Amino acid sequence: MNLINKIKNFETLDLMQEANKITLAEHGNKITLERAIFLSWWCDKGDCLFCYMSSQKPKIKEPQKARRNVNSILAEAELCRRTGMKIEFLSGGYGSYSTEEIRDISRKIYEITGEPVWLNIGITKDLKEYGEEIAGVTGAVEVANPELHNKICPSKSLEDITEMLEFAGDLGFQKAITVILGLGETPDDLKYLFDMIENVGIDRVTFYSLNPHKETIYENEPQPASLYYAGVVAATRIKFPKLKIITGTWIDNLANMGPLLLSGANGLTKFPLFKMFGTRYGKRVEEEVYWAGRELVGTFTDVDALTRSKAGNTELEPFIQRYIKKCIK
Fold first, then answer.
1. Where do the domains of the chain lie?
2. Would you state the CATH architecture of domain 3-327?
3. Which residues cross the membrane (predicted)?
């Protein structure tokens, strides 16, 4: 019986058991905390039906004011370094920053963390402008079923995403995609995802569960069931043993994490970092990792880690202290 049929026949536990064995054999037991750093709340396109930025576009009269202060972005990167969190990618809507600005921010983050960053900045033809500061390029696929994708993300064609990722590979960058579960897809749509991973040579997939935003068509929709989410991740892990898988869950669904780790996740993301750090929610993240038999890289509870070292750039200090105050209430 193939993997998709196993999901449809509710054989999720069998999938998880097999996926867990594969994960430990291929990747070991270390789990990373991943942080997406947002550059701006503005997007020129603003028409993805699920997206928070689509609800904000009509309200933003001056897009420049929706951009984050660069020192604030760099301060966030510094705190990721101190706590051992990985930067999943830099993310920004279309038209929020120029290529030169994104490259400059990426280089500064590389200097702070010592690790090149991933980009998730939309479909771009300017990849030749980047260098060693970039580890890889992410395509926001969200839904791999072409018909459904065209309805939900009308301005981001799968063909253009694929072309960008293939070009990224030609330049020596790694390739990643993001997928959101709960947008109306079915288990059968996994065939489209599997084909894309295989044909494009994807190195990393980030799965998210739908976070229903107000003023979008999904605001009253439920998030996907935990075992459905786990089944999709497990099937993907079995199909692609060496693939890096990151899974995202919001603060109201922390119980998803244990099953997702046992299903093949290598990293966890989508947390409101400064609201959760050092709280019972941060402790819950660490407990979920522990009881999945995994070892966490970094910390979500060690408040001393926030002040244990200093930033190389003193201009960042006021921004760093502002974030630390959010963590230490």
1. 3-327
2. Alpha-Beta Barrel (3.20)
3. none
